[in-house]
Amino acid sequence: MGKSQPTYSKEFKQQAVTLFETGGKTKTQIARDLGISDSALSKWCKEFGEHGAEAFPGKGHQTSIEEENKRLKRENEILRQERDILKKAMSIFAQPHP
User: Fold this and answer.
1) CA distance 38 to 28
2) Among residues 66, 4, 5, which one has the least CA distance to residue 40?
3) Which strand (E) or helix (H) includes residue 22?
4) 63, 57 Cβ separation under 8 angstroms
5) Other beta carbons within 10 Å of 34
6) CA distance 95 to 93
7) 3, 75, 84, 87 — which has fewest CB within 10 A?
8) Percent of the chain whose predicted confidence (pLDDT) is above 70
9) What pLDDT shows up at residue 62?
10) DSSP class per residue in 10-67
11) How confident is the model at residue 56, as a pLDDT?
12) What is the pTM of this model?
């Protein structure tokens, strides 16, 4: 069996990033103190820098941009289906009746 990767809460990740940004220690020292890898802390710092408060949405959670994108894709599919139904109906009603 493979080794399962530990999961950390959003608050833990934010505190780790804040500790690095405000503390006088290196990433390696902070990561060692917290019991995480320095690559994980680097990744968290990068994600927090790019997304700010929306960083670390968690499993199954999406950022507001991803949620909006998903909603628009659903709406687009519904509109596409409605258009196709109307096209079919127009072709039926446009046929001459004997």
Assistant:
1) 5
2) 5
3) helix 10-22
4) yes
5) 16
6) 6
7) 3
8) 86
9) 65
10) HHHHHHHHHHHHHSSS-HHHHHHHHTS-HHHHHHHHHHHHHHGGG----TT---HHHH
11) 72
12) 0.53
